[in-house]
Design a protein that fits this description.
By secondary structure, the protein is an alpha+beta fold. It has nine helices and four strands. It folds into two domains: 77 residues, Glutaredoxin (3-Layer(aba) Sandwich), CATH 3.40.30.10; 129 residues, Glutathione S-transferase Yfyf (Class Pi), Chain A, domain 2 (Up-down Bundle), CATH 1.20.1050. A four-stranded mixed beta sheet has the order 2-1-3-4, with helices on one face. Bound molecules: glutathione.
Length: 227
């Protein structure tokens, strides 16, 4: 199995956690990425497989797939143990909604924080304008943290047992922290879940790789991983 991944690609790293959780061995192919040029020039295999030209891309035998959620759902069907989705259809649907929440709902405000890992522009006014928008986005993200905190309702994981929902939402929360977003203070259930997931071997390994990639590729972010 081969995974085309990006060193600081939220969605690729999300798939990597799922692969590690399932104990699947894969060849990791890191596509070129810089903070100034993004993913350009694009990996030719990625361009040939994914019409959107994005990572992650998974190749398993003669199957080529793109989109992190589609890939994780395939992994669940092809390699069901250990399970990453609940068995009951209603619970599975709820779990998928959390995936959408992490991947799409939280990504919308997160995009306004992404300039923080890039080199600062020469014109300070441009930076200030971006930071004004970032602060508005942080308010939205803090609201999402509160929402996730409430979603646990006494459960240890978002869907009862550990699932793909935890991976997707964790990635959005981790990315928020990586980009200097709001702290987890005041959201005790969320903070404790986040702490527990961070030490699971699959998560710890991928977090370590992202942080090492940031050391090499990204500008230091003020307030990243704030307490
Ligand atoms: N919905 C897609 C999003 C994939 C995505 O946005 N990939 C980014 C890296 S995290 C990418 O390859 N960006 C390059 C581009 O859009 O040209 C997924 O879940 O896989």
């Amino acid at each position: 199995m081969k995974l085309y991944s990006g060193p600081v690609s939220l969605f690729s790293r999300k798939v990597e956690i799922a692969l590690h959780e399932k104990g699947l061995v894969f060849e990791q192919i890191l596509v070129p990425f810089t903070q100034t040029r993004g993913y350009s020039p694009k990996n030719p295999d990625v361009l040939a497989i994914n019409p959107k030209g994005q990572v992650p891309v998974l190749v398993d035998r003669d199957l080529s797939l793109y989109d992190s959620t589609v890939i994780i759902e395939y992994l669940e069907d092809a390699y069901p143990d250990p399970a990453l989705y609940p068995k009951a259809s209603i619970e599975r649907a709820r779990c998928r909604l959390f995936d959408v929440f992490g991947d799409e709902v939280m990504l919308a405000p997160l995009r306004f924080l992404m300039h923080r890992t890039e080199p600062k522009p020469d014109d300070p006014e441009r930076w200030r304008a971006k930071e004004d928008k970032a602060r508005e986005a942080e308010t939205v993200l803090a609201g999402h943290f509160a929402e996730i905190d409430r979603a646990f309702q006494g459960k240890d994981y978002l869907c009862g047992a550990f699932s793909a929902a935890d991976i997707a939402v964790f990635m959005a929360v981790f990315w928020t922290r990586r980009l200097g977003g709001p702290s987890l203070k005041g959201h005790e259930t969320l903070a404790s879940w986040y702490g527990r997931l961070s030490t699971r071997p699959a998560f710890a390994r991928v977090i370590g790789e992202i942080r090492a990639a940031d050391e090499e590729l990204s500008a230091p972010v003020e307030g990243a991983f704030r307490e």
